[in-house]
Amino acid sequence: MSSATSKAKNSFIVVLAVVLLAAAPAADQKKISIYSSVATYSLPVVDHAGHEYVGLLEILEPLGRVSASTAGRRWTLRYNNLDCEFFSGKTRARIRKRDFDLSAPFLIENSRGLVPLNSLSALLPRFLGNSVTFHEAARRLFIGDIATQVSAQFDAANPPRLVLNFTAPVNPTIATEPGKLRMVFLREPLVPPGTPSLFFDNPVITQANFSENNGVAELSIAATAPLMASFSNNARTITVASASQTPAAPTSAEPVPTVSGQPASIPGIAPPLPPPSRVRVIVDPAHGGTERGAALTDTLPEKTVTLGFARLLRAELQNQGFSVTLLREGDDTLTPDQRAGTANAAHAALYIILHADSQGSGARVFTALLPSSSPNHGPFHAWTTAQTDALPLSQAIAFAVLTAMQKHQIPARGYPASLRPLNNVLIPAIAVELAPGSNGISDLPSANYQQKAAAAIADGVSSLRDRLGAQP
Amino acid sequence: MIPRHLLIGVAVMLVIVLSMGIYLRQMSRAAVERQRLAEDNRPVMPPASGPTETVTLYVADDAAGMLRAQPAQIPLPEGRQQRAEELLRALLRIYTRSDSPHPLAPAADLRSVYLIDPGVAVVDMNAAFADQHRSGILTEQLTVDSLVQTLATNVPGIARVRILIEGNTRETLAGHADLTQFFDVNAVAQAITQAAQ
């Protein structure tokens, strides 16, 4: 009897260990955040032989026109009019026909060129001509003269208030937990104040700390009573005060942002920030390789815009806690059947294919156009109407994305379309076609415009996270 | 004093040069015209005979991103197949005009419509229709929806429509709209209603 109990205990411990080990990489996924005047984005960081690496093409993609190709161990990259070459396993590279030494060997992984993180400070100015500030320990990289400063003013009146003034509008994720209010800045280039820790001689609000780690900055306010935050001055000021003795709200106070759709201004008894669920999304940059898609301009094929747009969407979705797979990372040719087959085999919760069009304006969101009566019966699905069962959720997601687009002031409309591979995909599937914005065709390759659209798509998808999480 | 025969010689030479210039200019114009005619592969169709009828054409409007129902008076023959062909030709005439709300290539044309009972229409378009079509999901879908809805509204009994190019299946119209499948008339009608909302 006792032996059986011991065996059961051991089995439980083994299973628990396996589950914890499996969950660990997702929770600790390393990333680098890049802040520039044209775009803010996060990229995954890869560990190899004791060094941290990041994709060079992915860093430069939102900042200018970039292309790369691989020939054996040689990886060449063109950024605007600048050519450079790297060699797999070597530290020596050639940039503008001049030698450059990396701090660790260059890597090629699935045609992606990876450079060590601690070479970025010296490497990127060669491409960008701008100064680069890299907070290496926190993996936060600032390009050019971009920084949001914060200053704090403490008002010890009853009730006490901590007023945080920022030099630019901010929109942090706010979470409260017993004894603490945390503000996490994902997109803001917030830099450390002169003194990272402030101590207040007050029985309620006792301390404010700035920290940065894994691509994000965080301000945490320690208190002995529940706290709440309110925004004013066009999101340039955040006032933190005791929730039990809430002071008169500032005249222009705005609602605080939300965490997973829940109000964040819950007093200190609210539960801590829930761990993000790892709902998997497949992002498919349409066209690629020999299939160039539409000629958006004389020199800009659709396949180039969709790949850059997909990378930004991946970063936005990852910031919202989704696990994202890009269907193509480089200039690969894929048939619609291959795209659908990969999406179906991945057992993901959502498939998004991205297109671009030089005509019209704003964005369009498409769902599959299927026959009014489906030939699917029982467990088997006809290839041409595989989307039938998932179509209602696809339409709900399309509607959520359209709503989010409008919130981000991008004109958008929804349509059903006979567009492959939407009808061959078993999981919820939408297509987004990006058309020019208010600046015309020059918007399409603009990282700023693409990021705005990507953020809207991510917001729309995130609003239906619970329903997506319930998918097989 | 210039000799008289020399003056006459120079005058004759000038006349010859002038005549050759005019002749060359005419030759050049004729060559350009021949080239233009060679490139214009629009078939010369006899005018449709029969009484004029009021029909509803579903015309794509790029600016609005939707179809607009547009009444038109066109002569329609008796037979269902000829009637279907005339309807689509009337639609294409709108699209090939210079002020079209949804421009198609001037050479875009219909080859034939085959009606196969029960309820199938096969629309065979020429190569220029697809080869010179603008690329884009919405642009291509509007073209397809316009053809399908115009046919289904004015020719009773059509439930499914298939679009061929030069008698063959083509993967997509211009990189996006899937032409390998039949278009379900009811589904297209629902999609048009949904897009108009």
- Helix/strand-derived category of chain A reads alpha+beta
Number of strands of chain B: 6
- The chain-level mean pLDDT of chain B equals 90
What name does CATH use for the topology of the largest domain in chain A? Answer: Aminopeptidase
Characterize the biggest β-sheet of chain A.
6 strands, mixed
- What share of the residues of chain B lie within helices? 40-55%
Number of helices of chain A: 8
Task: For the record, give the distance between the C-alpha atoms at the N and C termini of chain B, rounded to a whole number.
Answer: 91 Å
Strand content of chain B: 15-25%
Give me the count of strands of chain A. Answer: 30
Through-space gap between termini of chain A: 39 Å
The strand line-up of the biggest sheet of chain A is 26-25-27-30-28-29
Helix content of chain A: 10-25%
Radius of gyration of chain A: 24 Å
Q: Which blocks of ≥5 consecutive residues of chain B have pLDDT under 50?
A: none
Query: What is the name of the CATH class of the largest domain in chain A?
Result: Alpha Beta
Largest interface: A-B, 29 and 29 residues
Tell me about the largest β-sheet of chain B: 4 strands, mixed
Q: Judging from the principal axes of the Cα atoms, what is the shape of chain B?
A: elongated
Structural class of chain B: alpha+beta
H/E series of chain B: HEEHEEHHEEH
